[in-house]
């Protein structure tokens, strides 16, 4: 049976990709953690949840949310599929993209309008009729 060593890293001093692009090297004060690229998607999903959960426990606030500030966004269609992509550009240069089924776009637009406190762009103005 393979034994695994536990590694505790309390601060990150630098991060870089290996020359072959297979590993993300995370350097701490006394050690380096090497993560294979096959783990990236799992980490991308796990880290925001872990950050939010940790903040809720640390602050005693069950409604705390984790959000990343964006500097820009872009939206487009994915090839010849009914899906669109929504890509958010983050501070410092990285970007994070999501695939959204096209049939969910109207509900997303309505939810964005409600969250922003503006009238829905999908509903006609009062008194307007379509011809």
Can you characterise this structure?
This protein has 131 residues and is α+β, with helices and mostly antiparallel strands. It folds into 2 domains: 12-66, no CATH class; 68-123, no CATH class. Helix content is 24%, strand content 28%. The chain has 2 helices and 6 strands; from the N terminus they run βββαβββα. It has helices at residues 40-59, 105-116, and strands at 14-17, 23-27, 32-36, 70-77, 83-90, 95-101. A 3-stranded antiparallel beta sheet has the order 1-2-3, with no helix packed on it. A 3-stranded antiparallel beta sheet has the order 4-5-6, with no helix packed on it. β2 (23-27) and β3 form a beta hairpin. The radius of gyration is 21 Å and the shape is elongated. The chain starts with 13 loop residues before the first strand and ends in a 15-residue tail after the last helix.
List keywords for this structure.
131 residues; alpha+beta; elongated; three-stranded antiparallel β-sheet; single chain; 2 domains; 2 helices; 6 strands; 28% strand
Topology:
Elements: E1 14-17, E2 23-27, E3 32-36, H1 40-59, E4 70-77, E5 83-90, E6 95-101, H2 105-116
Antiparallel strand pairs: 1-2, 2-3, 4-5, 5-6
């Amino acid at each position: 049976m393979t034994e695994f060593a536990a590694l505790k890293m309390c601060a990150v001093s630098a991060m870089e990709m290996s020359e072959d692009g297979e590993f993300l090297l995370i350097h701490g004060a006394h050690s380096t953690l090497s993560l294979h690229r096959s783990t990236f998607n799992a980490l991308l999903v796990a880290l925001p949840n872990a950050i939010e959960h940790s903040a809720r426990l640390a602050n005693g606030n069950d409604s705390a949310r984790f959000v990343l500030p964006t500097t820009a966004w872009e939206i487009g269609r994915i090839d010849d599929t009914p899906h669109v992509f929504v890509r958010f550009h983050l501070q410092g240069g990285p970007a994070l993209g999501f695939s959204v089924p096209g049939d969910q776009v109207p509900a997303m637009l309505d939810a964005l309008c409600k969250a922003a406190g503006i009238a829905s762009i999908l509903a006609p103005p009062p008194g307007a009729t379509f011809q």
